[in-house]
Amino acid sequence: MKAANVSCFVFKFIRIHRRELCRARTAGQQSSTTQFQQDCSPGHHLPFNRCIGHILHRRYSTESSVKDCRGLLYRNHGDPSQVVQLEPMELPPVGAKSVLVKILAAPINPSDINMIQGTYAILPDLPAVGGNEGVGQVTEVGSQVTTLKVGDWVIPRDAGLGTWRSAAVLKEDDLITLPSDIPLLSAATLGVNPCTAVRMLSDFEALKPGDTVIQNAANSGVGQAVIQIAAARGLHTINVVRDRPDLQQLTDRLRAMGATHVIKEETLRRPEMKDIFKTCPRPRLALNGVGGKSATELLRQLQHGGTMVTYGGMAKQPITVPVSALIFKDVKIQGFWVTRWKKNHIHDEGAMRTMLDELCSLIRAGKLSAPACAEHSLQDFQKALDAAMQPYSSAKQVVVM
């Protein structure tokens, strides 16, 4: 491009931006204006594309570009079908270190239900927006945001952001990017269950190809992720599910994901287990999302020195540990909570990034898919909540905005 044309092009953009600066002064955004003047002044040799970036990717208005925002709020703890309401929401201005996010899709997880009921380990201040997981797209960025840009797909770094809404103004540090070339439902359901699965398969036993993992709640979101990630790593899985009318259909689906064996709870106490261990070694790792007798039976199947990791307690019953398992088999019993892992690694950007990159690579390779999902609009939230609380459900309820 000739020098004259470049000068004309620059002048045109600066003239346009001067109008933005006037609006910014009027709106009280002097700090953003000053930053632009410093960065793009003739004496400051900032690359031309960075100056244009200020214009294209920054907005300096005190009003959000999203006008119609709605969310699922609860003002008291209790039965989700009674306390959750769809309400209009007023968005705050986008601050210097904040971004405006259009929420694309958000699932309903058991932890979301427990939060609304008031029984979860952490509870947000009331009134609160439901939802701890989901994916959104950045539509506006603050003047001091450096890690996010307009168009990025983002997910929460931690629980408690409230994802059951059409849009939100969130802090830059509360979000982490995802590539937008993975399926929407995979992105929306990536931050909790697959992260839980990959950490439990990685952090408690040094598993190698050919080893065995046994798990209950195998049809849950975590269970389905465990099956697929384990298969990608060359691990055998013994997957325990409750008996149900569509057991064969569920069994076929889990095997198609890569499950080595799918058995009923009752089989754990029967001689057929000996036949299973003719085809794969006894498990080094047991993953418990149920508790009660189911957890005790998992313990009995572990090899000497194995580990049982508990990440859930759907049966709402304590775990009974046989003395013989501790004395003669030297088993280890530990717990895992992905929220705690994320808090412990909040300053370790590499750990979170590496985990998400691994999961996204598996998704692109066709080795990790989202759980079976039922999609709902915000207006149909009651139907979604009711379905999420039904027993024997293998589908993840997802609110799509």
TrEMBL record:
Cellular compartments per GO CC: mitochondrion
Pfam short name (any one): ADH_N
Domain Enoyl reductase (ER) span(s) in chain numbering: 78-399
Coarse class of the protein's main subcellular location: mitochondrion
EC number assigned by the record: 1.3.1.104
Molecular function GO terms recorded: enoyl-[acyl-carrier-protein] reductase (NADPH) activity
Enzyme class: oxidoreductase
Biological process, per Gene Ontology: fatty acid biosynthetic process
Database matches in InterPro entries: ADH-like_C, ADH-like_N, ER, GroES-like_sf, Mito_Enoyl-ACP_Reductase, NAD(P)-bd_dom_sf
Superkingdom of the organism of origin: Eukaryota
Subcellular compartments: Mitochondrion
Keywords, sorted A to Z: Fatty acid biosynthesis, Fatty acid metabolism, Lipid biosynthesis, Lipid metabolism, Mitochondrion, NADP, Oxidoreductase, Transit peptide
Family of the protein in this entry: Belongs to the zinc-containing alcohol dehydrogenase family. Quinone oxidoreductase subfamily.
Name this protein carries in UniProt: Enoyl-[acyl-carrier-protein] reductase, mitochondrial
The encoding gene: mecr
